[in-house]
Please model this.
Amino acid sequence: MAQLSPLLKQATPIVVDHGEGVYLYDVDGNRHLDFTAGIGVTSTGHCHPKVVEAAREQVGKLIHGQYTTVMHQPLLELTEKLGDVLPTGLDSLFFANSGSEAVEAALRLSRQATGRPNVIVFQGGFHGRTVAAASMTTSGTRFSAGISPLMAGVHVAPFPYAFHYGWDEQTATKFALRELDYLFATVCAPNETAAFFIEPVLGEGGYVPANTEFMAGLRERADAHGILLVMDEIQTGFGRTGKFWGHEHFDVHPDIVLIAKGLASGFPLSGIAASKELMAKALPGSQGGTYGGNAVSCAAAVATLGVIQDEGLVENAAERGRQLLEGARLIGDKTPGIGDVRGLGLLVGSEFTKPDGEADPATAAAAQKTAAATGLLLLTCGAYMNVVRMVPPLVVNAEQIEDALRIWADVVATVTGS
Ligand code: PMP
Model:
């Protein structure tokens, strides 16, 4: 009998039967409050009726209309609709299936368009598991261990992760920008740098928001040296942070935006957006793929965009996000074992630390497991896996946030003995 690879671990022992909105139901009929949303994917909730209807209808019409052979309606419609929400000037799209593929597409575009070999990524960033994307990932060595040689041409600069450094935000930001300039001066010349790749909020790296001053510093250096600013909005896009794009919080204009996850409510779909002029600088034939822009995924994405707009999900993420962050902070403030609680919109992380400030992954893992056993699904993240993250669907309501916070308060009290 075949079985799944022993390396594929689940955060919970749950076998799911079906999902509805913010809840997952297991095969024994138990209900679970899902504050993982399939790692920030099911933004419209599990099986939103409008997404289900759009996908069902599309399955009966056309499942796969391979997009380098023929064009299909859902892809054209999605492209047009994304035009209404993308940052000004980013009017040209390429679609793929996974976040990692979008990262690689942006890497190819950046190198080909600039003719430069290097990219700079920021400490704690997660960009994927394919070899190029893993080479650009610094949120944990587990993503690149044992697969070296990694892709060359990747350099790493600090992210303004104030709590990690034990500084205030301003000091951490000044340090990060100074180190970036030092990197330029010592190992990675600006005129050999194709792009910066950055997440507006570190996701896998521990739910750490960037800030306006830091982004302005990147934009300034990008403009001064002809470097492209690539915004990895794979986890932060489509309303997740309480604005449509995470980078909007920081008043910065990117050259390339990467999209996936929340885009299609769980159907595999990713993409990159750039200006037509920039896209045209890449080499012919460098964009394509068998499954990219799948017809059912695109139909689901069109429906997702409609639901986000019709149900005011960006505003809901902002309001419910404030409620969740405030509640989690109150719990964190009362708990010596939680060193920091932070986030943006419906991305909220609680970082577990020992009395001496060291990371405490054991208590974070115990909290995640205890929460799951009590009906609240959560995940851990961070370089040391000591951050418990909450990332509920954007349709979450005030009562469900209260339910989650009530469970979380009990869980934290139990595992920290406070
Ligand atoms: N970038 C970011 C910011 C992500 O959060 C992820 C997935 N967690 C990826 C890239 C990679 O996406 P995928 O797993 O679909 O390849």
Remarks:
- The mean pLDDT is 98.
- The chain has two domains: 16-34+312-416, 51-310.
